[in-house]
Automatic annotation (TrEMBL):
Gene3D superfamilies: MFS general substrate transporter like domains. The keyword Transport applies. The chain crosses the membrane at residues 121-142, 154-174, 258-284, 296-317, 329-347. Residues 371-397 have a biased composition (Basic and acidic residues). Keywords: Membrane, Signal, Transmembrane, Transmembrane helix, Transport. Its main location: membrane. It comes from the Eukaryota. It holds the Pfam family Sugar_tr. Residues 371-403 are annotated as: Disordered. Residues 1-351 form the Major facilitator superfamily (MFS) profile domain. GO terms for cellular component: membrane. This is Major facilitator superfamily (MFS) profile domain-containing protein. The lineage of its organism: Eukaryota, Viridiplantae, Streptophyta, Embryophyta, Tracheophyta. It is a multi-pass membrane protein.
């Protein structure tokens, strides 16, 4: 497994040898930009970079020498602070959409859906990984056409819809799991029965999901896996005994006719995520900060991303045990709803804007377009009201002519 992971690193190393070095002279910069920009845009980009570099040099001494001074200066700067609202928001929202739980634990999630075979679960999980790669290519095609903000909002809506459907599917998987056959559970093998099932006050109410929650294993019926089976102790010997009778052994999920739907909507979840929330947050963080604060701003946003990744990935299995698969996906849907609201309020559109234009946009204070007009109208009304009040005051104080 570790050897296979090294192959992409070798490919990346070879390709990085062809990357141009960061230029230190105007001619070097121009030759590199000619490979990126059309001829008609080259001069504008060169002028914009020249202005940015001059501004960076002029303000470099104001940042300070230590990291503490730089961070203090960043948070005191209103443009950087508003940029961080946007940059950190999209990075945290990306992780709390639950993406890395799907990528890290996709074989386990597929087994939750009722696919007991490790090989089958791994094969299906590879499909989701492939869809993620394809979605990234789609993002390259559409991000400059439709804009960063719009793609993230559409992506979030798709993610929420898929998570809600997955919540329903996994709740149905739990509700309609096969019942426990008392005779098979008690007489399957000597001392093989699940101890929690044996001591249960009402064992007739148990189904496969109850058995797995008690940390036992479910041995499916040999004739039809959707009919009542045995709840047995979780051990290798008993698992082997179950399989020797040509039955399927379940320990993570239960047999379900809804399982294939879970795989389908996991794929749709990836398709919704990858072109928008998968790539665009990194694009936004490369465009949202003033040049002199880009390293600090991007670094803070990246830390927020990886801390969020750590929290989500480390709590996933605990959440599935406490809330169940359905409850966990519903929780992620709620997080995505909150993320969608924050993206709508804090993230401006940066498509087609020069860095200086983004800085002016943040300096003025970003407000969603739907609320921008009403805000401007309110200001106009306030101005008219003030003028009217001043006119009435002048009329009252002005001496009236005598009759």
């Amino acid at each position: 497994m570790l050897g296979v992971a090294g192959l992409p690193a070798v490919v990346q190393f070879v390709l990085m040898l062809s990357l141009p070095e960061s230029p230190s002279k105007v001619d070097e910069a121009k030759s590199i930009l000619e490979r990126i920009y059309p001829a008609e845009e080259l001069e504008d980009e060169m002028n914009a970079l020249k202005i940015s570099v001059e501004a960076e040099k002029a303000d470099e001494h104001a940042l300070g020498d230590s990291m503490a001074q730089k961070l203090k200066g960043a948070f005191k700067n209103v443009v950087v602070r508003r940029g961080l609202y946007a940059g950190v928001t999209v990075q945290v929202a990306q992780q709390f959409s639950g993406i890395n739980t799907v990528m890290y634990y996709s074989p386990t999630i597929v087994q939750f859906a009722g696919f007991a075979s490790n090989k089958t679960a791994m094969a299906l999980s590879l499909i989701t990984s492939g869809l993620n790669a394809v979605g990234s290519i789609v993002s390259m095609t559409f991000v400059d056409r439709y804009g960063r903000r719009r793609m993230m909002i559409i992506s979030m809506i798709g993610i929420i819809a898929c998570l809600v459907v997955l919540t329903i599917i996994f709740s149905q998987v739990a509700t309609h799991s096969p019942n426990i056959d008392h005779f098979e559970s008690m007489h399957f093998a000597l001392n093989a029965s699940c101890s929690s099932y044996v001591r249960a006050n009402d064992p007739t109410s148990w189904n496969c999901m109850s058995c797995l929650r008690a940390e036992c294993g479910f041995c499916a019926n040999g004739v039809n896996k959707y009919t009542p089976g045995a709840c047995l102790a979780l051990s290798k010997d008993i698992k082997d005994s179950c399989r020797e009778k040509h039955r399927t052994w379940y320990k993570d999920g239960c047999p379900s006719r809804f399982g294939f739907l879970a795989v389908v909507f996991l794929g749709l979840y990836i398709i919704s995520y990858s072109p928008g929330m998968g790539t665009v947050p990194w694009i936004v963080n490369s465009e949202i900060y003033p040049l002199r604060y880009r390293g600090i701003g991007g670094g803070i946003a990246a830390v927020a991303n990886w801390v969020s990744n750590l929290i989500v990935s480390q709590t996933f299995l605990t959440l599935t045990k406490a809330l169940g698969s359905a409850g966990t996906f519903l929780l992620f849907a709620v997080f995505c709803g909150i993320g969608l609201i924050f993206i709508f309020w804090f993230v401006p559109e940066t498509k087609g804007l020069q860095f200086e234009e983004v800085e002016k946009l943040l300096q003025a204070g970003f407000r969603p377009e739907a609320f921008r007009k009403s805000s401007e109208e309110t200001k106009v009304d306030k101005g008219k009201g003030k003028a009217k009040a001043e006119a009435e005051t002048d009329t009252e104080t002005k001496p009236q002519p005598s009759s």
